[in-house]
Amino acid sequence: MTTPPAPDPRPVDVTAWIGSYPFRDVPHPDPEVLVRVLDREGFAGAWVGHLPGAFHRDPVPSNRALYAAVEPFAGVLLPTPIVRPDWPCWTEMLRDAVNAGAPAVRVYPAQWGLGPRHSALAELALACGEVGVALHVTLRFEDLRQRHPMDTVGDVPAATLRGLARLAGSRCHLVIAGAGREIIEETHWGLTPSEQQRVFYDFGWVWGPPDDHFAHLVGTMGAERLTWSSWWPLRLAQQSRALVDLLPHHGSSPIANVAFTDGFADGRIILEAAQSAARSGLGSQNSPGTVQPTNR
Amino acid sequence: MSSLIDVHAHFHTPLSNRGDWQRYNASRLDAGDRMGVVCHVASVLGSWGATSPTYFSSPLDQTRANDWMLDFAEERSPRVKTWVAVNPNFTAHALSEIERGIARGAIGIKLAAGRRADDALLDDIAAAAAQYGVPVLQHIWQHRRRDWPNQDASDGIELARLAARHPNAIFQLAHIGGGGDWAHTYPAVRDFENIVMDLSGSGIDRGMIDEALRWVGARRLLWGADLTLCTALTKLRALPYTGASKDDLADMCWRNAVRIFPAGAFTTALAAANHSVVSGASA
């Protein structure tokens, strides 16, 4: 009789991509390299998007490329394809994502020109809640100060995030990537307690010491709302771990003493929450005054 | 990596507009200790905007800031050293501050963004740096394509012009991760051996350090943090994966600092460097 292997205790990264970036070179953004980096940096796996597709109009070819590229690495690289809800047949993109076992789907509202409370985004969020996949929103790819002259779309505003989180009847779980302290707080404290429970923030863009924004957020919002990420291949994958290791009050030798997951969310936890909410069939506890989706 | 010198640090003072200035400073020192930083080479930019703009500090604000910084370095010696900061628009005051600061133990000159780096007003300051044998830390906006508010920022090309005029002075180009397009900076400064670059800043782009190594080599790169120690730790942990040798790592982490600053500046700090560090844990 054999004992089943213990589950990998390491976190699942929620924000990684494969593929090239249109505005600068990123070194070897290939899935086999990502697998090595994840293992080296202590991640059990990653939610992986297809970076070029964020800048394309039609996401379908990008999704095809993504599914094919991560297939050899099933169980480690989890596809998070794009669903563009203002594009014809977007429900088929979502259906394909579910069939491929995607834990989440990705949206790029700034690149598509979809502003706060856009009805298409609302419809997608509601649909994600029904099928138990998270909705991953990328606020930005690069620091404002270094953007290419042709990269003019700006960041996704907190109003868009609050609008998605406030949808009446929604069971959608949101993952917000690329936010600093200000956007996170503006979103989190602009939601009811029940709405807050469905939003997770990738903490890779939050500052550590000496400003200690990360410690502040851990203290005020709780680690469970903050999730691990690598931001590979755009950024150095060590940042999330560095932030946790530099948290104050973790003893004199934080690397040795802090459990790697230590109360923070990760892709596994978020997927379980999204699936549990979908299975429950329970409506949201939002008040009647919350935003209603508009049929297109 | 047994030793680490942060060549680009800042502290706040009771004269700046942060009520938590003591907490901020303590956090920096604490995080530095945990990472293995044996010395923070730091400056204070005037009142940090409280009574004159950060990058255009008034002479009075800058004198007070330097006084505070020199006192702090004295109290925290050998863990903290001083860049004496000056506003080049007030040449006589700047030269006086440099003389006074170095007499009190400052080991370099900090220029922020009060004037473009290639402006003739900087010549006397660069000459003073060469005369005293101290480096100049020049705030840089990597590939400045327009004017940004509240500063006359310079980029690599502008600093290279100053470096060409002062071959006997050493210029530390600030924070390749500190905003703008770092890829523009490397070819702009490659041929100017008296320009070194620090890795500080909040930017942690993949490829940034690798390309810097290709263009200028490890002997002209210095690890530092500036305003975000988390990104500094990230870059420290990424260094071993850039293809850098052990010698290269030592150069970037501390040996280049020993070379460019006055002799003996870090001797005591390095001797006391038997500490527990978190810096190499994922290397």
Order the strands across the largest sheet of chain A as they lie in space.
4-5-6-7-8
CATH topology name of chain A: TIM Barrel
DSSP helix fraction of chain A: 25-40%
Strand tally of chain B is 8
**CATH class type of chain A:** Alpha Beta
What global shape of chain A is seen? globular
Structural class of chain B: alpha/beta
Q: Describe the sheet with the most strands of chain B.
A: 8 strands, parallel
CATH T-level topology of chain B: TIM Barrel
Q: Would you identify the regions of chain A where 5 or more consecutive residues have pLDDT less than 50?
A: 250-261, 287-296
Gross CATH architecture of chain B: Alpha-Beta Barrel
Q: What's the structural domain tally of chain B?
A: 1
**Helix and strand pattern of chain A:** EHEHEHEHHEHEHHEHEHHH
Rg from Cα of chain B: 17 Å
N-to-C CA distance of chain A: 57 Å
| Strand order, sheet with most strands of chain B | 1-2-3-4-5-6-7-8
Radius of gyration of chain A equals 18 Å
| Outline of chain B | globular
Descriptive notes:
The complex is a heterodimer of chains A (296) and B (283). Chain A has 296 residues and is an alpha/beta fold. Chain A is 34% helix and 12% strand. Chain A contains 12 helices and 8 strands. Chain A has helices spanning 31-40, 60-70, 90-99, 109-112, 119-131, 158-165, 181-188, 193-196, 213-221, 239-245, 254-257, 267-280; strands at residues 12-18, 45-50, 77-79, 104-107, 134-138, 174-177, 199-202, 226-227. In chain A, helix 6 (158-165) runs parallel beside helix 7 (181-188). In chain A, strand 1, helix 1 and strand 2 (45-50) form a beta-alpha-beta unit. With 283 residues, chain B is α/β, with parallel strands linked by helices. Chain B has one domain (4-271): Alpha-Beta Barrel (TIM Barrel). Chain B is 40% helix and 13% strand. Chain B has 10 helices and 8 strands. Chain B has helices at 21-35, 59-75, 91-103, 123-132, 156-165, 182-189, 208-216, 229-238, 246-260, 267-271; strands spanning 4-10, 37-43, 80-86, 108-111, 136-138, 171-173, 195-198, 221-222. Chain B has an 8-stranded parallel sheet with strand order 1-2-3-4-5-6-7-8. In chain B, helix 2 (59-75) packs parallel to helix 3, helix 3 packs parallel to helix 4 and helix 6 (182-189) runs parallel beside helix 7 (208-216). The longest helix of chain B has 17 residues, at 59-75. Chain B is globular and about 45 Å long. The chains are: A alpha/beta (296), B alpha/beta (283). The A-B interface holds A 24-27, 40-42, 142-143, 145-146, 149, 207-212, 214, 232-236, 238-239, 241-243, 245-246, 248, 252-255 and B 24-25, 27-28, 30-31, 34-35, 141-142, 145, 179-183, 202-207, 210, 227-231, 233-235, 237-238, 276, 278, 281-282.
